């Protein structure tokens, strides 16, 4: 569990961030060994930024969805990508 109890609420990419740190620790901070993790983390941040921007534009609050709703939002997004 993170030291900050609100960390997951405020950072939807906490898991990806933790994986980046773990990879860096395991590879003596050689960034080239962790490029996949960096890319995954960036994609996560980009995705949730777009979700927040869209929710703000449509007047939905909170702009960052609650933790319990995030998995459903990701699944809905994946359906549009697979069928689109």
From TrEMBL:
Subcellular location: Mitochondrion intermembrane space
GO terms classed as biological process: mitochondrial respiratory chain complex assembly
Sorted UniProt keywords: Disulfide bond, Mitochondrion
Annotated GO CC locations: mitochondrial intermembrane space
InterPro entries xref list: COX23, COX6B-like, Cys_alpha_HP_mot_SF
Main location: mitochondrion
Family, as annotated: Belongs to the CHCHD7 family.
The protein, known as: Coiled-coil-helix-coiled-coil-helix domain-containing protein 7
Provenance organism: Aedes albopictus
Classification of source organism: Eukaryota, Metazoa, Ecdysozoa, Arthropoda, Hexapoda
């Amino acid at each position: 569990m993170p030291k900050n109890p609100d960390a997951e609420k405020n950072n939807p990419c906490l898991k990806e961030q933790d994986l980046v740190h773990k990879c860096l620790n395991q590879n003596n901070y050689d960034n080239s060994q962790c490029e996949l993790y960096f890319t995954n983390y960036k994609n996560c941040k980009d995705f949730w930024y777009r979700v927040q921007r869209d929710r703000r534009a449509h007047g939905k609050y909170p702009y960052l969805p609650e933790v319990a709703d995030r998995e459903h939002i990701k699944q809905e997004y994946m359906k549009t990508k697979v069928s689109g």
